[in-house]
Amino acid sequence: MTTAFNEQSHLAEAIRRLENTSDPRLKEIMEAFSRHMFAFINEVRPSEAEWMQGIEFLTDVGKMCDDVRQEWILFSDAFGVTMLVDYHNHRAHGAETESSVLGPFYREGAPEYAPGETISQDGEGDPVVLAGRVADADGKPIAGARVDIWQTAPNGLYEVQDASQPEFNLRGVFRTDAEGRYLARTVKPVSYPIPDDGPVGKLLGAVGRHPFRPAHIHFIVAADGYEPVVTQLFTDDDAYLDSDAVFGVKNSLVVNYRPDGDGYRVDYDFVLKRAS
Ligand code: DHB
Ligand code: FE
């Protein structure tokens, strides 16, 4: 080393050490990592104790992970990173349905239901009729589209978190008819805290945030020749709409539960983008 050590020379040297990276995308990512990480340190100037605390936090996040708990995803979700990644990958340009986070509770292989059947296996909760169309951006109906739905039970827990619920309770796949219509029955979802018994929950508490998500139903809507949309519909009178712990709410995804018989009805049309 012949140059003096300072912010500029150190960054230049760190980037020079990447020059043999053969994968150009990895090179781009690691250069950006160096620039932004060093800028972060130059701005924050952590004490050594603070830096150790940071290392310990990241270690605890890793240790919290197992087959069913992914604390890293929770960290990304709770501090807004996941929604930003989603935005850059699925920007809606016009009429297409906006996306939201997949979340940690999706399960493949949910049972297929006929139009009008309910995904509630125990009938607990206020009944809801979910109805609408799946169409393309020109309004042309998409027949045979797949509408995959999942949500919490009235106790605020997904079936995978709650041994007292039947297998695949409140999960189901519906198909649209020749006019692109789907018709599903479920129960009204409730607001629900993201798992907050780990390091991410502790950090949320330290910055004065609550862990709640507004009540929502998850959807993956897919059809041949179209890009699938991963999204959620939120209840319009929910107390947490403006402070969703994972930033998932978009105006176009907020729906009204209209009183209907002994329950509610929600009408919502999905618009898919043609696959490119
Ligand atoms: C997250 C998303 C959910 O839909 C949910 O119910 C809980 C957590 C998440 O993004 O971490
Ligand atoms: Fe959820």
Summed over residues and divided by their number, the pLDDT gives a mean of 96
What integer value in Å does the Rg equal?
23 Å
In total, the number of strands is: 13
Distance between the termini: 50 Å
Element order, helices and strands?
HHHHHEEEEEHEEEEEEEE
Look at the helices and sheets and give the structural class.
alpha+beta
Oligomer: single chain
Give the overall form.
globular
Largest sheet data: 6 strands, mixed
Compact summary:
The protein has 276 residues and is of the alpha+beta class.
3D architecture notes:
The protein has 276 residues and is of the alpha+beta class. 26% of the residues lie in helices and 22% in strands. It contains 6 helices and 13 strands. The chain has helices at residues 7-16, 24-44, 48-63, 71-78, 81-89, 199-206, and strands spanning 127-136, 146-150, 171-175, 181-187, 192-193, 212-213, 216-222, 226-227, 229-235, 254-255, 258-260, 263-267, 270-274. Strands 1, 4, 8, 11, 12 and 13 form a 6-stranded mixed beta sheet that branches. Strand 11 (258-260) and strand 12 (263-267) form a beta hairpin. Helix 1 packs antiparallel against helix 2. The longest helix has 21 residues, at 24-44. It is globular and about 80 Å long. Bound molecules: 3,4-dihydroxybenzoic acid (DHB) and fe (iii) ion (FE). The site of fe (iii) ion has 4 residues, from strand 7. 3,4-dihydroxybenzoic acid binds next to helix 4.
